[in-house]
Amino acid sequence: MQFPSIPQLETERLVLRGPEAADFGPMAAFFADEARCWGFGGPLDRNEAWRWFTMSVGHWAMRGFGFWTITCKVTAETLGITGIWQPEGWPEPELGWVAFPAGEGRGVMAEAAMAARTHAYEIMGLPALCSNIFPGNTRSVALAERLGAVFEAEFENPKHGRELVYRHPAPAAPCDGGMEAYA
């Protein structure tokens, strides 16, 4: 298997690029902060964070898509991650995001997630996307809704427990369900 080239995406203010070794520090800090990472399956110690980080890099090789590192176009500061992932056993591709402290409160995550979603639909040709969100993660719910996603159902994730499925609008028309995959 050859390692795929990770496309770089640009928005007005942001660059979404493939992960680099220097991105591990901010990722480990995110996973060490229980108040911030609980909605993303954490907290994780540094070793577990490293395993998650390298798994996410390997996801690009196995699936041809994954998480981009979000950076500021002007300063190159690392602001978070966003992308499409589908771990083994996942019923469909999911659009996910994580804001690091420098990426909060400026519309960065919406801009980055929209760029990732547009890439998924227009370049990758995916017909539908969801975002699976832990109950109580009001900031992620607000972002999903800002992106036009609508609550579809709850499901029991075998690893994480109860999650909420938010369905993103498809490129041409709203997706007609898809929850049968979660049954």
UniProtKB/TrEMBL annotation:
Any coiled-coil regions, as ranges: none
Single GO molecular function: acyltransferase activity, transferring groups other than amino-acyl groups
InterPro entries registered for this protein in UniProt: Acyl_CoA_acyltransferase (IPR016181), GNAT_dom (IPR000182), N-acetyltransferase (IPR051531)
N-acetyltransferase domain location: 13-149
Keywords noted in UniProt: Transferase
Gene3D superfamilies for this protein: 3.40.630.30
The name this protein goes by in its record: Acetyltransferase
Originating organism: Leisingera methylohalidivorans DSM 14336
Species lineage: Bacteria, Pseudomonadati, Pseudomonadota, Alphaproteobacteria, Rhodobacterales
